[in-house]
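Need a sequence for this fold. Nothing fancy.
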């Protein structure tokens, strides 16, 4: 038989919903993660420094994160670029959330950012048939010893199970409801 590769169980399930006979031939192969090069520790929180990594596009749900964090003791560190940057800046400003926009980060600049934050958020949303597979950003966060806040979409819950995490329902309401649990994870992890 012929083998095929999926990036996570969720992708394998999507394919086998269409072609049930394909499941026995599926291999789950996680994305490789570069070794962490931590260059220090963040200052004590709060405010909690929370990074995001990825292209600034609607499926990433970053505008939901900004709205959900209104009134919370957070500082977002947005790493990435894309067509959604202007609307994300406006969403952060409208919610009164302090945000630092780093642009695209790689190598040493990524190490500096991930060494200076307390957590990573991956608040993605389902958009029609599109959803996150198994994003490398979650594995990278764990390699730096960071807890993660993810949404229940695509392969995010499965990826987050490898370390300290909270899984929220997608959208502003779900992220806001998950904040007390995630703040508790941050307190336990950093104090």
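Here you go.
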């Amino acid at each position: 038989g012929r083998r095929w590769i999926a990036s996570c169980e969720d992708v394998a399930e999507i394919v086998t919903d269409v072609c049930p006979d394909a499941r026995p031939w599926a291999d789950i192969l996680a994305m490789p993660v570069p070794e962490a090069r931590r260059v220090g520790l963040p200052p004590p929180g709060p405010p909690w420094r929370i990074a995001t990594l990825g292209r600034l596009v609607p499926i990433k749900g970053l505008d939901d994160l900004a709205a959900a964090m209104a009134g919370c003791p957070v500082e977002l560190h947005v790493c990435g670029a894309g067509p959604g940057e202007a609307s994300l800046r406006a969403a952060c400003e409208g919610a009164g959330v302090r945000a630092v926009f780093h642009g695209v980060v790689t190598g040493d600049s990524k190490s500096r950012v991930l060494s200076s934050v307390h957590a990573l958020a991956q608040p993605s949303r389902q958009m029609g048939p599109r959803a996150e597979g198994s994003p490398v950003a979650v594995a990278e966060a764990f390699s730096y010893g960071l807890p993660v806040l993810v949404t229940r979409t695509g392969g995010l819950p499965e990826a987050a199970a490898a370390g300290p995490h909270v899984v929220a329902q997608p959208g502003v309401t779900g992220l806001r409801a998950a904040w007390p649990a995630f703040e508790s994870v941050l307190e336990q992890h950093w104090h």
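For context: Residues 172-190 form the longest helix (19 residues).
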